Amino acid sequence: MKKTITIIDDNESLVTSLSLQLNISNYNVNKFICPEKAIEYLATNPSDGYIVDFKMPKMNGIEFYKDLCSILGKDKLPAIFLTGVEQIEERVLRHTTAGDFVKKPFSYSILIARLEKVMSYFASQNIKKVIKLGNLSIYPEQLLIKWYNKEIEMTKSEFNLVYSLAKHPFVVNTRDKLLDTCYGEDMIMTDRNIDSHIKRIRKKFRKANPKINFDRIKTHYGNGYSWNPKSVTQ
Fold first, then answer.
1. What predicted TM-score, i.e. pTM, was given to this entire model?
2. Domains plus CATH for the chain?
3. What is the pLDDT of residue 29?
4. Angle of helix 175-182 relative to helix 156-166, nearest 10 degrees?
């Protein structure tokens, strides 16, 4: 699957040039000359990597980076900063991952090499963050779930439900609690939505391994749901 890179730079010709070269290198590209519009889009469509100009009129690169990290709930993101001033390198290094800056003017080959290095570093860190519960593996940073080593495609809402249940096994989660923790205040959801999602989740687990009688999600009638890791043979 192609990775997506987002470029944020107020120099439109530079953005266009970089976009073309990244497309040639087999990347999908989002391009913005306005950091505020970029944040609005990326809040619901995060990328695999970011190329960010440090010096922009209304919001500098570090301000953009901090705001996006906050919105996405991350401490750090795989970003490369484009800098033209020697003195800002220390600031860039203090706020991001070592090595993720390129001086202007720059070589495209150097830029892409550093970008790929940073993305590789973040990917390796994300893989390490795994919650294992019997034959269930949850990768929170990747919104990925594996069941008997088989990946299960889920929507973000479905993933949040499984994650909320599985990380506290045997604990009964009321529908109201699941609505709060899995969807937040911005989505209008009801108890019926929870029940529908649970039904779809069960079907996906059974489809992933038809030979396994999946009954890990227990229904507590009148109360809610819990994850029971001992309900089937490990």
1. 0.55
2. 4-128 (3.40.50.2300), 131-227 (1.10.10.10)
3. 95
4. 120
